[in-house]
Amino acid sequence: MKGNVYIMADEYVLPQKVIEQLKEELKELRTTGRTDIAEKIKEAKSFGDLSENSEYDEAKSDQAKLEARILEIEYTLSHATVLDESTLSTETVHTGLFVKVFDKTYSEELVYQLVGAPQADPINDKISDESPVGKALLGHKVGDVVTVETPAGNDIIEILEIFKK
């Protein structure tokens, strides 16, 4: 989640736990993070000529990254809807559920967890509900066969199981 750039959405559906984690990170960045960066900048300025001061350039770059992350979290929180995982039905694919699929294009069985964009971690099979695969699966039932339009071409995926963990 940290350091990634997300395509901004009108709404993010996130579990309460994730919203609380984002709030905690935001609080940390606004306080300790900003204080640490201010100290780095102050120390770098003490080295003299700013035009040839790599420490100063690095500190300013770190400051820009910190402020960008703060803005990203603020935007996410202001557009977040709490996902009540206890009320999720496994009749159809929804954000927060796990989906076992058979990818007919590649002849392989896969399990994905559909998550809001800020939680996406494709390496760990957490796919965004805004991704091509996530969008294609939303609202479908076990046994449905869906076509996923991807940059590499169309994939044909059959939904085998929808479940919670």
The biggest beta sheet is recorded as: 5 strands, mixed
Average pLDDT score: 88
* Helix share bin: 25-40%
Q: Which secondary-structure class do the elements indicate? A: alpha/beta
Question: What is the succession of H and E elements?
Answer: EHHEEEEHEE
What does this molecule look like?
With 165 residues, the chain is of the alpha/beta class. Helices cover 37% and strands 25% of the residues. The protein is built from 3 helices and 7 strands; from the N terminus they run E-H-H-E-E-E-E-H-E-E. The protein has helices at residues 16-45, 54-78, 132-137; strands at 12-15, 80-83, 98-103, 108-115, 126-128, 145-150, 153-163. The strands form 2 sheets. Strands 5-4-3-7-6 form a 5-stranded mixed beta sheet. The protein has a two-stranded parallel sheet with strand order 1-2. Strand 6 and strand 7 form a beta hairpin. Helix 1 (16-45) packs antiparallel against helix 2 (54-78). The longest helix is centred in the N-terminal third of the chain and has 30 residues, at 16-45. Residues 1-7 have low confidence and may be disordered.
Secondary structure topology:
Elements: E1 12-15, H1 16-45, H2 54-78, E2 80-83, E3 98-103, E4 108-115, E5 126-128, H3 132-137, E6 145-150, E7 153-163
Task: Offer a few descriptive terms.
165 residues; alpha/beta; five-stranded mixed beta sheet; two-stranded parallel sheet; 3 helices; 7 strands; disordered N terminus
What is the gist of this entry?
The chain is built from 3 helices and 7 strands; from the N terminus they run βααββββαββ. The protein is an alpha/beta fold and 165 residues long. The strands form 2 sheets. A 5-stranded mixed beta sheet has the order 5-4-3-7-6. It has a two-stranded parallel sheet with strand order 1-2.
